[in-house]
Amino acid sequence: MTEQKLHNQAGRTVEHSGDNAGTAFPGASGVLFEQAMAQTRMAVTLSDPHDPDHPLVFVNRAFLELTGYDEDEILGRNCRFLQGPGTDPEAVARLGRAVRDNDVVVVELLNYRKNGAAFWNAVHIGPIYHEDGTLRYIFGSQWDVTDVHAARSEERHARLMEREISHRMKNMFAVISSIVNMLGKTSTEPALGRDINERIRALGRAHEATLQLSFQQGRVDPTQMFRELVGPYTSDPRALDLDGGAVQLDSNSVSILALTLHELATNAVKHGALSSKRGRVALSWRMCRADGQDQPLLRLTWTERGGPPLHGDPERLGAGSEITTRMLRAAGGVIRRRWDTAGLTAEIELPLQC
């Protein structure tokens, strides 16, 4: 049996003796080859391109450690046994095209070890030729890049968070600008700066409470946000009753709801239920659809009970109420206030940008 030198496309040679790479390579060069393959940390395989199923005919120790299989469980099989339910068929097809075209390619695959554990595998394959230019093997190397893949995911998540926070902040400053402009036109009170600051703090509480929900898919439970918004206006937790399910909130609706509930709560402290020790506020919400509309609608009901008797003209709205009414109207929403002997009931409808 004569010694052969196998050339890859880079011009380097892998020396071995004999025709069967699945057995030990006889000869001094074969010993060196096996020792080199045993020492390298990169998993290496050779497959037979002349067999229709491209079976593996050589694997090194690093490949056995990477996959958890024994050598006798691998040799003679196509490398597809590492694939599983999460493996991308398009990535597998890219490998298949490279083998068919005698091309060199690097593809990241989700593969599975013998124990079922998934790992991201950077697979590099390419042809190895005889000195006469005929194809001899398909060389393969594998590298566990699970940590690298996770780092990329974290980086994408960080970029998503950065964009979301930037969007929220731009939206918040736009709302603040609207508050300042409208208050400047409607308010004659000397405490204009205090009013602005109170509304800005309400916005901050709302966005802080919902920041952790920004990256969840689908509906989220806004109970904590509503508690953060209304809770500071009463020292008695029993004065606030929250009832509602998960809804789909966007940053614009968060800002509008923050200002609306802030105005309702401050008015309740000044004139309504929260000005009395026996006063109670119930806030309920649900998602629905308006008649003939496909866009989802958030409907909230604010109900005050146990407050002092009504005095004066409750229909006369202050500057804050005008702001919330205009902001809701600009977003396609509405607020309906109804006063009776029991107290105020406010119904809010706000289209959601989902």
TrEMBL record:
Which SMART domains does the record match to this protein? HWE_HK, PAC
- What are the record keywords, sorted? ATP-binding, Chromophore, Flavoprotein, FMN, Kinase, Nucleotide-binding, Phosphoprotein, Photoreceptor protein, Receptor, Sensory transduction, Transferase
CDD domains the UniProt entry points to = PAS (cd00130)
Give the E.C. number(s).
2.7.13.3
Q: What reaction does this catalyse?
A: ATP + protein L-histidine = ADP + protein N-phospho-L-histidine
Q: Give the matching Gene3D superfamilies.
A: Histidine kinase-like ATPase, C-terminal domain, PAS domain
Sequence ranges assigned to domain PAS in this UniProt record:
51-102
Q: Where are the stretches annotated Disordered?
A: 1-22
Give this protein's Gene Ontology molecular function annotations.
ATP binding; photoreceptor activity; protein histidine kinase activity
Sorted alphabetically, which InterPro entries does this protein's record hold?
HATPase_C_sf (IPR036890), PAC (IPR001610), PAS (IPR000014), PAS-assoc_C (IPR000700), PAS-like_dom_sf (IPR035965), Sig_transdc_His_kinase_HWE (IPR011102)
Q: Know the name of this protein?
A: histidine kinase
* UniProt source species: Tranquillimonas alkanivorans
Query: Taxonomic lineage of this organism?
Result: Bacteria, Pseudomonadati, Pseudomonadota, Alphaproteobacteria, Rhodobacterales
